[in-house]
Amino acid sequence: xxxxxxxxxxxxxxxxxxxxxxxxxxxxxxxxxLKIKKQINNRxxxxxxxxxxxxxxxxxxxxxxNEYKVKVYDNNTLNEGxxxxxxxxxxxxxxxGHKEDLISIYFKxxxxxxxxxxxxxxxxxxxxxxxxNPDDMQKxxxxxxxxxxxxxxxxxxxxxTTLEYEVLNNPFFN
Length: 174
What we know:
CATH class: Alpha Beta
Number of helices: 5
Order of helices and strands: EEEHEHHEEEEEEEHEEH
């Protein structure tokens, strides 16, 4: 699986395009549709995954739906547990805390997880916003800590990290 990161919008949101066999899924198309479209190029778009519905993660969503005529996958349309879209098989985890609808997408074979604004390198997403909940965040952290430590975490903003780094260095993981 090939993972491409595009930084979009005023809040520098990470939009990910993941690719297998010239087929792609778009994760969190926050803004700048033309930039995302250029990166997709002539590959087949199978769908869009939304980790949570904050404006900086969905700014280009409608344009992508209209351009590629694809389905949106989120906390309401994916099953908690194993899901398959084309050549992609992944586990959807409900990881509320930053927002009640936040999900993480874990690819076991590749040992990667896309977490939206759940985890950032050395910290976590804010829990003082509407729809957030500090108690839910702690439960989500306990859930993610059960995954392999060498799992690579792809956040909604900033640089990637690993679960091991977060367990050892992130004060919210203690």
